[in-house]
Design goal:
This protein is α+β, with helices and mostly antiparallel strands. It is built from 9 helices and 4 strands, in the order E-H-E-E-H-E-H-H-H-H-H-H-H.
């Protein structure tokens, strides 16, 4: 069972959420972004106590319908970025609105409130993860990867890659190749 907790994504906030689960004796598998996966089913009373404890720290336990919408948004983005041969040439907002049949502004506000990041930042992080995979496991050059991920040019991809990872795509690929040759 997964719970969705509205909090800013930071180490301090994760620690507070962790402490609340510990205080209530609720075992969980992990805390990721705004998501906490509980190992066992919990009672309604435990859920309400968790809601109260989180509220005291400024956090919100999201109801299932909102949490379900967040998951649908994430799933649609992951499908789009990781499983499409080539990203469509339409705006992300139009794609998500058409795919999920909801107003984009509603989804964007809900997503930001629940996760602490915008949909666009989530899309960028997924695109960079895909770019890392393509750099390591495909024979595509940077221009082909930029095209595949719908970047207007290699410079834009490189700029976002460095912002997210702290490394240039070329240096990232070089590090992985260097590590691979030293392991042999």
């Amino acid at each position: 069972m997964k719970f969705y907790v509205k909090y800013m994504v930071s180490i301090r906030c994760r620690k507070i959420v962790h402490d609340k689960f510990e205080k209530l004796g609720l075992a969980y598998k992990g805390i990721d972004m705004s998501e906490v996966e509980v190992k066992d089913n919990i009672t309604l009373k435990q859920r309400e106590k968790l809601r109260e404890e989180l509220f005291l720290s400024g956090f919100e336990l999201l109801d299932d319908s909102k949490a379900g919408m967040i998951e649908k948004i994430k799933d649609a983005i992951i499908d789009l970025v990781h499983y499409s041969e080539e990203l469509p040439k339409i705006k992300n907002s139009d794609f998500l609105s058409d795919k999920l049949d909801y107003d984009y502004t509603y989804m964007a506000n809900l997503f930001s409130e629940a996760t602490g990041i915008t949909i666009e930042h989530y899309i960028i992080s997924q695109k960079i993860e895909r770019a890392k995979h393509l750099l390591l496991f495909d024979d595509l050059n940077l221009t082909e990867i930029a095209y595949k991920l719908n970047y207007c040019n290699v410079g834009h991809l490189s700029q976002q890659f460095k912002k997210v990872t702290g490394l240039t795509p070329t240096f990232f690929k070089h590090l992985k190749q260097k590590k691979h040759t030293t392991e042999k």
